[in-house]
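Before we proceed, please read the two lines closing this message. Let me know whether the C-alpha coordinates fit the sequence:

…
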Amino acid sequence: MSGEFIAFLVLALIAIAGGVLMINLTQVVHMVIALVFTFISIAGIFILLSAEFLAAVQILIYSGAITIIMLFGIMLTRHNDTSEPKSSLGKRLLILGGIAAFAISVYFGIYNLEFPNQATDLHVENTKQIGIALYSEYVIPFELTSVILLVALIGAIVLAKKDDKKEDNDK
Protein backbone atom coordinates (compact mmCIF):
# COMPACT_ATOMS: atom_id res chain seq x y z
CA MET A 1 0.00 0.00 0.00
CA SER A 2 1.37 3.36 -0.97
CA GLY A 3 1.10 6.49 1.11
CA GLU A 4 -1.15 8.08 -1.49
CA PHE A 5 -3.62 5.18 -1.24
CA ILE A 6 -3.69 5.40 2.56
CA ALA A 7 -4.21 9.18 2.38
CA PHE A 8 -7.07 8.63 -0.06
CA LEU A 9 -8.70 6.06 2.22
CA VAL A 10 -8.42 8.35 5.25
CA LEU A 11 -9.82 11.35 3.35
CA ALA A 12 -12.61 9.28 1.82
CA LEU A 13 -13.60 7.90 5.23
CA ILE A 14 -13.63 11.42 6.69
CA ALA A 15 -15.82 12.62 3.81
CA ILE A 16 -18.25 9.74 4.24
CA ALA A 17 -18.31 10.12 8.03
CA GLY A 18 -18.96 13.85 7.70
CA GLY A 19 -21.85 13.20 5.32
CA VAL A 20 -23.36 10.54 7.57
CA LEU A 21 -22.96 12.77 10.63
CA MET A 22 -24.58 15.68 8.81
CA ILE A 23 -27.62 13.55 8.07
CA ASN A 24 -27.90 12.06 11.56
CA LEU A 25 -27.13 15.04 13.82
CA THR A 26 -30.02 17.04 15.27
CA GLN A 27 -28.42 20.44 15.91
CA VAL A 28 -28.16 22.51 12.75
CA VAL A 29 -24.82 24.09 13.67
CA HIS A 30 -23.35 20.63 14.29
CA MET A 31 -24.61 19.58 10.85
CA VAL A 32 -22.77 22.50 9.26
CA ILE A 33 -19.54 21.58 11.07
CA ALA A 34 -19.85 17.98 9.83
CA LEU A 35 -20.35 19.37 6.33
CA VAL A 36 -17.17 21.42 6.68
CA PHE A 37 -15.24 18.23 7.48
CA THR A 38 -16.65 16.70 4.31
CA PHE A 39 -15.69 19.75 2.21
CA ILE A 40 -12.13 19.84 3.56
CA SER A 41 -11.59 16.13 3.01
CA ILE A 42 -12.81 16.48 -0.57
CA ALA A 43 -10.28 19.29 -1.01
CA GLY A 44 -7.63 16.86 0.20
CA ILE A 45 -8.74 14.36 -2.44
CA PHE A 46 -8.42 17.12 -5.06
CA ILE A 47 -4.82 17.65 -3.90
CA LEU A 48 -4.14 13.94 -4.31
CA LEU A 49 -5.45 14.26 -7.88
CA SER A 50 -3.02 17.15 -8.60
CA ALA A 51 -5.90 19.61 -8.87
CA GLU A 52 -4.59 22.28 -6.54
CA PHE A 53 -6.80 25.02 -7.96
CA LEU A 54 -9.94 23.00 -7.34
CA ALA A 55 -8.72 22.22 -3.81
CA ALA A 56 -8.22 25.92 -3.10
CA VAL A 57 -11.64 26.76 -4.54
CA GLN A 58 -13.19 23.95 -2.51
CA ILE A 59 -11.75 25.36 0.70
CA LEU A 60 -12.41 29.03 -0.06
CA ILE A 61 -15.87 28.73 -1.60
CA TYR A 62 -17.43 25.71 0.05
CA SER A 63 -15.69 25.42 3.40
CA GLY A 64 -15.62 29.19 3.84
CA ALA A 65 -18.30 31.10 1.99
CA ILE A 66 -21.05 28.50 1.69
CA THR A 67 -20.69 27.52 5.34
CA ILE A 68 -20.93 31.16 6.43
CA ILE A 69 -23.98 31.69 4.22
CA MET A 70 -25.60 28.60 5.74
CA LEU A 71 -24.92 29.86 9.27
CA PHE A 72 -26.35 33.29 8.43
CA GLY A 73 -29.38 31.59 6.91
CA ILE A 74 -29.86 29.63 10.09
CA MET A 75 -29.56 32.76 12.22
CA LEU A 76 -31.87 34.89 10.04
CA THR A 77 -34.71 32.41 9.72
CA ARG A 78 -37.07 31.11 12.31
CA HIS A 79 -37.08 27.38 12.79
CA ASN A 80 -38.64 25.06 15.28
CA ASP A 81 -36.36 22.63 17.05
CA THR A 82 -39.00 19.93 17.23
CA SER A 83 -37.49 16.57 16.60
CA GLU A 84 -38.85 14.16 14.04
CA PRO A 85 -40.15 10.83 15.25
CA LYS A 86 -37.73 7.94 14.87
CA SER A 87 -38.13 5.98 11.65
CA SER A 88 -39.15 2.34 11.70
CA LEU A 89 -36.78 -0.56 11.17
CA GLY A 90 -38.30 -1.33 7.77
CA LYS A 91 -37.69 2.21 6.56
CA ARG A 92 -34.10 2.09 7.78
CA LEU A 93 -33.51 -1.24 6.01
CA LEU A 94 -35.01 0.19 2.82
CA ILE A 95 -32.68 3.20 3.01
CA LEU A 96 -29.69 0.95 3.68
CA GLY A 97 -30.64 -1.23 0.70
CA GLY A 98 -30.90 1.85 -1.51
CA ILE A 99 -27.48 3.06 -0.38
CA ALA A 100 -25.98 -0.38 -1.04
CA ALA A 101 -27.57 -0.54 -4.51
CA PHE A 102 -26.22 2.91 -5.31
CA ALA A 103 -22.72 1.99 -4.11
CA ILE A 104 -22.72 -1.22 -6.16
CA SER A 105 -23.91 0.58 -9.29
CA VAL A 106 -21.25 3.27 -8.89
CA TYR A 107 -18.58 0.61 -8.34
CA PHE A 108 -19.51 -1.31 -11.49
CA GLY A 109 -19.91 1.96 -13.40
CA ILE A 110 -16.31 3.02 -12.77
CA TYR A 111 -14.61 -0.37 -12.44
CA ASN A 112 -13.45 -0.63 -16.06
CA LEU A 113 -13.59 3.06 -16.87
CA GLU A 114 -10.86 4.19 -19.24
CA PHE A 115 -9.96 7.79 -19.92
CA PRO A 116 -8.79 8.96 -23.32
CA ASN A 117 -5.19 10.09 -23.78
CA GLN A 118 -6.23 13.69 -23.17
CA ALA A 119 -6.84 13.00 -19.47
CA THR A 120 -3.21 12.09 -18.80
CA ASP A 121 -1.93 15.66 -19.07
CA LEU A 122 -4.65 17.48 -17.16
CA HIS A 123 -2.43 17.98 -14.10
CA VAL A 124 0.05 20.07 -16.12
CA GLU A 125 -0.79 23.75 -15.59
CA ASN A 126 -4.35 22.90 -14.62
CA THR A 127 -5.04 26.38 -13.24
CA LYS A 128 -4.05 27.95 -16.56
CA GLN A 129 -6.22 25.46 -18.47
CA ILE A 130 -9.22 26.17 -16.24
CA GLY A 131 -8.75 29.93 -16.59
CA ILE A 132 -8.50 29.79 -20.37
CA ALA A 133 -11.58 27.55 -20.65
CA LEU A 134 -13.59 29.59 -18.15
CA TYR A 135 -12.92 32.99 -19.65
CA SER A 136 -12.91 32.04 -23.32
CA GLU A 137 -15.49 29.29 -23.84
CA TYR A 138 -17.69 29.63 -20.77
CA VAL A 139 -17.88 33.37 -20.15
CA ILE A 140 -21.67 33.61 -20.53
CA PRO A 141 -22.51 30.69 -18.17
CA PHE A 142 -19.98 32.10 -15.68
CA GLU A 143 -21.65 35.52 -15.72
CA LEU A 144 -25.15 34.01 -15.60
CA THR A 145 -24.13 32.06 -12.51
CA SER A 146 -22.99 35.32 -10.91
CA VAL A 147 -26.36 36.94 -11.67
CA ILE A 148 -28.28 33.94 -10.31
CA LEU A 149 -26.27 34.02 -7.08
CA LEU A 150 -26.93 37.76 -6.75
CA VAL A 151 -30.67 37.22 -7.24
CA ALA A 152 -30.62 34.45 -4.61
CA LEU A 153 -28.85 36.77 -2.16
CA ILE A 154 -31.38 39.55 -2.75
CA GLY A 155 -34.23 37.04 -2.36
CA ALA A 156 -32.83 35.84 0.96
CA ILE A 157 -32.61 39.42 2.22
CA VAL A 158 -36.18 40.15 1.12
CA LEU A 159 -37.46 37.01 2.86
CA ALA A 160 -35.58 37.91 6.04
CA LYS A 161 -37.04 41.42 5.97
CA LYS A 162 -40.59 40.05 5.51
CA ASP A 163 -40.16 37.92 8.63
CA ASP A 164 -39.04 40.99 10.58
CA LYS A 165 -42.06 43.03 9.40
CA LYS A 166 -44.41 40.16 10.25
CA GLU A 167 -42.91 39.92 13.75
CA ASP A 168 -43.29 43.69 14.26
CA ASN A 169 -46.96 43.56 13.21
CA ASP A 170 -47.65 40.68 15.62
CA LYS A 171 -46.46 42.70 18.62
